[in-house]
Design goal:
Blueprint lengths: L1 E5 L2 E3 L5 E8 L7 E7 L6 E6 L6 E3 L7 E6 L4 E6 L8 E8 L7 E2 L3 E5 L2
Parallel strand pairs: 2-11
Antiparallel strand pairs: 1-3, 3-8, 4-5, 4-9, 5-6, 7-8, 9-10, 9-11
Length: 117
């Protein structure tokens, strides 16, 4: 299982970014994919997950209304669209995979998002 997150970078408060998680080495359609983040000195925070099959989604209350997750099974890629970014969204963002959203066992390398003016 290989997961590669990309799309991070620097953005001003109020800006938007779209993160991508490219997957390989497994049957993509059979896995749920999730995103979490970790900011310096803070605990990991689960953000969102998209199920296999019906593609149902979960979004954490902390980012609901600002972040949206989607998947393109043809491209083996999951996206995290982030809008109205805040300084406190600064963190390393990771994508994970697993059989369901409560069992995301496989991690990819993270991508750094920096929100500052």
């Amino acid at each position: 299982v290989q997961l590669q997150a990309s799309g991070g970078g620097w953005v001003q408060p109020g800006g938007s970014l779209r993160l991508s998680c490219a997957a390989s080495g497994f049957t993509f359609d059979d896995y749920a994919i999730g995103w979490l983040r970790q900011a310096p000195g803070k605990e990991r925070e689960g953000l969102s997950c998209i199920k296999r099959g019906d593609g149902g989604t979960f979004v954490a209350d902390a980012v609901k209304g600002r972040f949206a997750i989607s998947r393109d099974n043809a491209k083996n890629t999951v996206y995290l669209q982030m809008a109205s970014l805040k300084v406190e969204d600064t963190a390393v963002y990771y994508c994970l995979a697993g059989p369901d959203c409560l069992s995301l066992d496989y991690w990819g390398q993270g991508t750094l998002v920096t929100v500052s003016s």
